[in-house]
Write a structure and sequence with these properties.
Layout (H helix, E strand, L loop, with lengths): L5 H13 L20 H6 L14 H9 L5 H6 L5 H24 L4 H6 L2 H4 L1 H8 L13 H4 L3 E2 L2 H6 L6 H6 L8 H8 L7 E2 H18 L12 H4 L4 H10 L7
Parallel strand pairs: 1-2
Helix pairs in contact: 3-5
Length: 254
């Protein structure tokens, strides 16, 4: 649905986990909403088809540039030089798939191939954006403690299933190699060392929307309620070590 080109995404996501929400060198190319907030752009993301007007910011446009052999900034920063040809070739495969899908739709006089393969990212963006923006939007930049730059929110079972339990996003960043099916268990183990999660979309966006409006005026403005308490920060991470033992492997950041 997202039309992620896998080579680019592999390397940019590795960088994203290493330098989450870093706005300087090295830059995190997976920041969804930059500061100061473009309020019109932020709210338009929730409306189906409006992302057509921002194609120049889209991964699809970036994939097209890679397919044409253009070395983009994300290539230069994230992708090792020996892997860049692989990225370009993978992008070309994606573009060929889009073109073939369009030809098939025209040949059979049917929108169905486009609806299933190319267009979901445009007409189905509302739920995708509602889930995705909970991850980091409105939180700290340029800090390695994921409890400042990342949030967890408890979603309804259907959204959680569609989102692969990525709403447990602090847990995902602490233990990125552990399967998403364990994140709810991990959340229970480490809950005393993390900020309390928000309960559902309404509770979450009651925090995000005011932060977006404030950061449109002052990019340094932060919602202090979203930060871990001083008491949590003074803990030595023994529960996280226990979690490591229980689930086999992960990534310690504290």
């Amino acid at each position: 649905m997202n039309n992620f080109e896998p080579v680019r995404w592999r390397w940019s996501h590795f960088k994203h986990h290493t330098f989450t929400s870093f706005t300087k060198d090295p830059f995190d190319f997976e920041i969804a909403i930059t500061k100061p907030t473009d309020v019109i752009y932020f709210f338009s993301l929730f409306i189906p088809l409006t992302n057509i007007f921002y194609l120049h910011k889209s991964l699809q446009f970036e994939t097209l540039k890679h397919a044409l052999g253009i070395t983009t900034d994300v290539m230069k920063v994230c992708i090792p030089e020996k892997e860049r040809d692989k990225c370009s070739n993978s992008a070309r495969i994606h573009v060929v798939i889009w073109i073939v899908t369009a030809i098939v739709s025209l040949n059979f006089n049917s929108w169905l191939p486009l609806i299933y393969i190319v267009l979901p990212v445009f007409y189905g963006n509302t739920h995708r954006v509602m889930c995705g923006l909970t991850q980091h939007t409105g939180l700290h930049d340029d800090i390695k403690d994921h409890r400042y730059s990342t949030r967890t929110v408890i979603l309804n079972p259907i959204s959680s299933f569609l989102y692969w339990q990525m709403e447990y996003h602090i847990e995902h960043h602490i233990f990125p190699n552990i399967s998403h099916i364990h994140y709810d268990k991990i959340a229970e183990i480490v809950k005393d060392q993390l900020p309390p999660p928000k309960k559902g979309f309404v509770d979450e966006y009651k925090e995000i929307i005011p932060a977006m409006l404030k950061q449109a005026i002052n990019p340094e403005s932060l919602n202090m309620d979203a930060e871990p308490s001083k008491a949590l920060l003074e803990m030595e991470g023994m529960t996280l070590l226990s979690c490591w033992d229980n689930f086999g492997y992960g990534l310690m950041v504290f």
